[in-house]
Amino acid sequence: MTIANPWFFLLLIPFGLLYLFWRERKFIGYSSLYLARESKGFKKIIGYVLKPVFFGAVFFLIVAITHPQTRYYEEETILHGREIILSVDTSFSMTGTAIETIKKIVGDFIKKRPHDLLGVTIFGTDAALIVMPTMETQLLEKSLERVQASQVGYQTAIGEGLFTSISALFEEEMGKMFTIKDLRNSINKEYLAEYAISFIKEMEKRNVLKNKLIILFTDGIYNIGISPTRPLRLLKRMGIKAYVVAVKASDVTGVDPEIAAQHIEELKEAVESTGGKYFHAENFDEVAKFYREIDRIEKDKIVVESITKKKDLFIYPTFVSLFFLFISIFIENFWIRIP
């Protein structure tokens, strides 16, 4: 327990002196009906407790105004939902119809997910986190409105977009133990390096891998950055699903058609290896399937807010003080009238 206003305990000094004076009868008392006649028996005994009861009321009142509190404790706001990162391709090939199609699908998706934590990343030549996972629908919609083609470069780094999305999902859990740079280096190999394996084991130990997923909105053709198969391999090992909503490119991709087809197939296979699926945005039925697929994913407990605070305890000495005060009033004004 802690005391918010300990200096009020100084009031106990004059209070203590007053109590001592009262015990030795060295003070001028106030008028009382008890002086009118002497009580006998049990009534006389009750008369002796009047002033101790009154002083008890004052004592507990002083304790109350010192504002006693508990030590800090955590209070969490918990909902059941999913934690989802929406990763949007903003490369040059998304100019025009493609980016507008993506924004419409993402906007509809946000409206349908009031109880899910949603975050937004974008990628072109580079990748950037736009909104950390949140339930603030208005913030997500306004951020989506500002997303434009070529916002972070003209080329398409799908792998960087995926890795930035993974970082967004686990930024809080990384702390000082892991760094984004070292984790990126550890997955950008032909195999998952020891650093990445340690990261996975630590996240498993903390039980933070449930009900997280990443959804890519892209044409599926990458031409810069790490291969998307590498962050997808990390997601597979972590048991996190990735989905792709494929949009037909509006402009040139700068990639040979045969290589582009190969990249799309590689991405599709890697996504399906995580347990996710590859959908085509130009097909309305495919988009409807996509929504249903996400709805089927089991929800889990999400800590929306964790607040550290203290609990006030002054109410308890206040009640005790009032109780003693009422007892003293009852004795002084009613008890003596009982024959």
UniProtKB/TrEMBL annotation:
TM segment ranges: 6-24, 45-65, 314-336
Top-rank lineage group of the source organism: Bacteria
Pfam families: VWA, VWA_2
Organism: Candidatus Jettenia caeni
Phylogenetic lineage: Bacteria, Pseudomonadati, Planctomycetota, Candidatus Brocadiia, Candidatus Brocadiales
Alphabetical UniProt keywords: Membrane, Transmembrane, Transmembrane helix
Xref: PROSITE patterns: VWFA (PS50234)
Keyword Transmembrane appears in the UniProt entry: yes
Protein's recorded name: VWFA domain-containing protein
Domain VWFA, chain residue ranges per copy: 83-294
